[in-house]
Amino acid sequence: MKFPLCLAASLSLVSCATISPPASHGTVDHVVLMWQKRPGNTADRQALLDACSELRVIPGIKFLDAGTALASERPVVDDSFDVGLTVRFDSEKSLHTYETHPFHVKKVNEVLKPLTKKIVVYDIVR
């Protein structure tokens, strides 16, 4: 009977170890929300997701992920956007390097701007 309890306790400790530690002081999260010009167009949505993923090659990115809005009935949740992008940088300087990087500028001008009617950006520093 002791073995199942020890196993359960061990597994719970392992799952705790998978939680990332808090971000370091000065870390910046760059959150981008996009509304498509043609809402519901799956090809446009995929092109936006692909363009976001391709940005991973830019130096200074610690984390990058993109996805779509999760529908919610909660009044505090804005689920009206089509595609969301979250990028983490180790510093404000890395964010500025990313913003001006030629590949980022190219993707914004050739994919994001042509396919979106609205883009909202939130930059959060720790």
UniProtKB/TrEMBL annotation:
InterPro entries associated with the record:
Dabb, Dimeric_a/b-barrel, HS1/DABB1-like
Q: Which UniProt keywords apply?
A: Signal
Q: Where does the signal peptide begin and end?
A: 1-25
Q: Which residues form the Stress-response A/B barrel domain?
A: 28-124
The answer on whether this UniProt entry bears the keyword Protein transport reads: no
Transmembrane regions listed in the UniProt entry: none
Which protein, by its recorded name, is this? Dabb family protein
Q: What high-level taxonomic lineage is stated for the organism? A: Bacteria, Pseudomonadati, Verrucomicrobiota, Verrucomicrobiia, Verrucomicrobiales
